[in-house]
Amino acid sequence: VSGRGERPSSLLGGTVSILTANCGLGHTVELSEYLDLGGYQALRKALQTPPRQIIEEIKAAGLVGRGGAAFPTGLKWEAAANAPGSVKYVVCNADEAEPGTFKDRVLMEDDPHSILEGIIIAGYAIGAQKGYVYIRGEYLLPYQAMKKAVEDAREAGFLGNNILDTDFNFDIEIRRGAGAYICGEETALFESIEGKRGFPRLKPPFPTTHGLFGKPTVINNVETLANVPVIIRKGAAHYRKLGTEKSPGSKLFCLSGDVVRPGLYEVPFGIPFHHLLYDLAGGVRPGHHLQAALFGGAAGAFATPDHLNVRLTFEDLKEAGLPLGSGVITVFDETRDLRDICLRLARFFAEESCGKCYPCQMGTQRQFEILERIARGEVQQEDWERLQDVGWTMTDSSLCGLGQTAASAILSAMKHFPHLFQPI
Amino acid sequence: MSVETKSSEKILEAVNAAIEKFGAKQEELIPILNEVNRQLGYIPTEAMEEISRRLKEPKSSLFGVASFYHMLSTKPRGRHVIQFCESAPCHVVGGREVFEALKEELGLEPNETSPDGKWTLITTSCLGVCSVGPVIVIDEDIYGNVDARKVPEILARYE
Ligand SMILES: NC(=O)C1=CN([C@@H]2O[C@H](COP(=O)(O)OP(=O)(O)OC[C@H]3O[C@@H](n4cnc5c(N)ncnc54)[C@H](O)[C@@H]3O)[C@@H](O)[C@H]2O)C=CC1
Ligand SMILES: Cc1cc2nc3c(=O)[nH]c(=O)nc-3n(C[C@H](O)[C@H](O)[C@H](O)COP(=O)(O)O)c2cc1C
Ligand code: SF4
Ligand code: FES
Fold first, then answer.
1. Global pTM?
2. Ranges under pLDDT 50 in chain A
3. Model pLDDT, residue A70
4. ipTM of this complex prediction, to 2 decimal places
5. In terms of CB atoms within 10 Å, which end of chain A has fewer, N or C?
6. DSSP run (H or E) holding A132
7. Where are the transmembrane segments (chain B) (predicted)?
């Protein structure tokens, strides 16, 4: 137990430390230390390179978004760079609210400058003048760390006019959320920065042409941006030495639940799930065994012991029907009541649905009501049919990713543990 | 003492300070509301009226925004706000027991404020510190690895 000033620190583990090289030192790496560790060299290098070539390097590295949807970052940057207009933005999505996720928090608290460096390089590559970092309102320490980093970077000439004596001008503003899961969805996030309720917009048009304030915008997750200086400093070929052809580099995983050493793990893409769970995180708590693991948080899907050999890459997980999502894995041992877990997930979505579109507004409520009954043990004959119906309707016809994934974990539980949803 | 409502003077002061800090622009609305909420513990109707006047935004749209975000409250809250994480990762590692202990110790159900105006208890979803669950946050202090038996001792740290 800590509190009143002290921060409970998260365990940091894994087999490589690239993104987390400056993390876990017990303090925030501030500017002078960051510079000693080689910080802002990537920016220096980038500013001597034509913007197009930076984008080519990111494309060659095969970097894909770490916010959950795995869209190729280089393509996104290229689209924004090509979009007509002179006013452009870079937005760093630090709204991290997927239950079980805390990787972006650790990066921001421990190594804020690496994220800023990524944002500034992105700004240079697409021709933007301003960047925003949208941090979830509950994250106080990350906010303070990022705010100080921006001030120090500005003071040292890494932000502002004529950065490092070039004609590139760029500044960063930090925004805090106010408690709404939906504001992590990129277009809802824009609405929130613009001072409105966080209602998602219809996509397309994508942010790369119509983003913040209607201008071409690149929005990337914190972890995605933290990869950028790594790639620029050592080059795409070096970056690709880790991971697989389709999933290059390393990935941060957040392990929680019934695991011996819950924490943040950095590993190369491609290690099997059992290696992460048993060798690195110490396995399921003593005396118990794995019943299920929730991949990708509330918006994710359940894995079973049959999945222990699956390799952690986008392609392998996709084939196994599991999302990598933001890299969150919550472990449940055989004593846990999965009906109750499903009920919690259903309540989460019923509370977080923004109510803009009908399938999700109604569907999340219906799903919650049915699961309330099931969790009480009062399963009705028709509940199976009803849950499937509600679930697939939401998945197929909701306006944004929240509704589209609100049934995903529950449908996967029904697939792997059908008996839980049938009358006894 | 009952739940504190704020004097007009204090309210105006908080609104002025917030608008001065961020500027009277619509895009600064959420930072302004956040700041007033932090200063006063909630956003009183009077504050909404003043912000509406200064930003030239209709009151209805301000209420729409304030009610959208969980961290903004238009109702007075206790001097200390306890947030309890009820998401699955914390729940499975002993969250249920901690929550029972909290409710019993405080004599409160979720979303209630104690009659003496000291405590407000709210439940929330994941706070991003799941590797040290179960987690409670009191005001801005984070407590990780909370054990149900430690709850009275933690609460005793607050006046
Ligand atoms: N990290 C977290 O805390 C959370 C993450 N998520 C994740 O979010 C994901 C869903 O996110 P969405 O933004 O709805 O996914 P999406 O598939 O709509 O988009 C992914 C990204 O690619 C861009 N994009 C897609 N097609 C494009 C095109 N043709 N041109 C230019 N840009 C294009 C989008 O603008 C977006 O930035 C889920 O997979 C979920 O795992 C969900 C909740 C919380
Ligand atoms: C309901 C919902 C919540 C989301 N929350 C986050 C979030 O907290 N952080 C994040 O990076 N992406 C989140 N996303 C994904 C973003 O919409 C977007 O895809 C991402 O920021 C793009 O960055 P990337 O390409 O670097 O992954 C969310 C999506 C949905 C549908
Ligand atoms: S799917 Fe849900 S969260 Fe998304 S716009 Fe529709 S109601 Fe809102
Ligand atoms: S689940 Fe409780 S802090 Fe994340």
1. 0.96
2. 1-3, 5
3. 95
4. 0.95
5. C
6. strand A130-135
7. none
What pLDDT shows up at residue B151?
95
Confidence of residue B62 (pLDDT cuts 50, 70, 90): very high
Domain boundaries, chain B: 8-68, 80-156
Residue with tokens 């909290």, as numbered in its chain:
B102
Omega prior to A418 cis, within 30 of 0: no
**CATH H-level superfamily of B80-156:** Glutaredoxin (3.40.30.10)
- Whether A180 sits inside 8 A of B126 (CB atoms) is no
Question: Would you state the pLDDT for residue B6?
Answer: 78
Nearest C-alpha in B relative to A332: B92
- In this prediction, residues B3-31 reach a mean pLDDT of 91
> For a substitution probing ligand 2, which of A185, A212, A225, A252 has the most ligand atoms within 8 Å of its CB?
A185
CA distance A66 to A62: 12
Whether A326 lines ligand 1, by a CB cut-off of 6 Å, is yes
DSSP bridge partners of A131: A90, A172
> Contact at 8 Å (CB) between A361 and A355?
yes
Query: Is A131 within 8 Å of A171 (Cβ atoms)?
Result: yes
- What is each CA distance from B121 to B2, B43, B148, in whole angstroms? 16, 18, 16
Q: At B4, is the pLDDT very low, low, confident or very high (cuts 50, 70, 90)?
A: low
Please give the single-letter amino acid code of residue B86.
Answer: E
> Looking at this protein, which amino acid is placed at residue A22?
N
Q: Which atom of ligand 2 is nearest to the CA of A189?
A: 17
Which residue, B95, B102, B94, is CA-closest to B153?
A: B102
Report how far ligand 2's centroid is from the alpha carbon of A401 (Å).
9
Q: Whole-angstrom Cα distance, residue A276 to residue A253? A: 9
Residue A424 pLDDT: 74
Report the candidate in B98, B158, B102 with the shortest Cα–Cα distance to residue B132: B98
Q: Comparing C-alpha atoms, which of A225, A207, A204 is closest to residue A125? A: A225
- Of A364, A72, A46, A74, the C-alpha closest to A232 is A46
Query: CA A115, A121, A125, A130: dihedral to nearest 10 degrees?
Result: 70
One-letter-per-residue 3-state SS of B72-103: CCCCCCCCEEEEEECCHHHHHHHHHHHHHHHH
Distance from CA of B34 to the nearest CA of A (A): 7
Tokens of A300: 């994710």
* Chain B residue numbers touching A351 (CB-CB < 8 A): 125
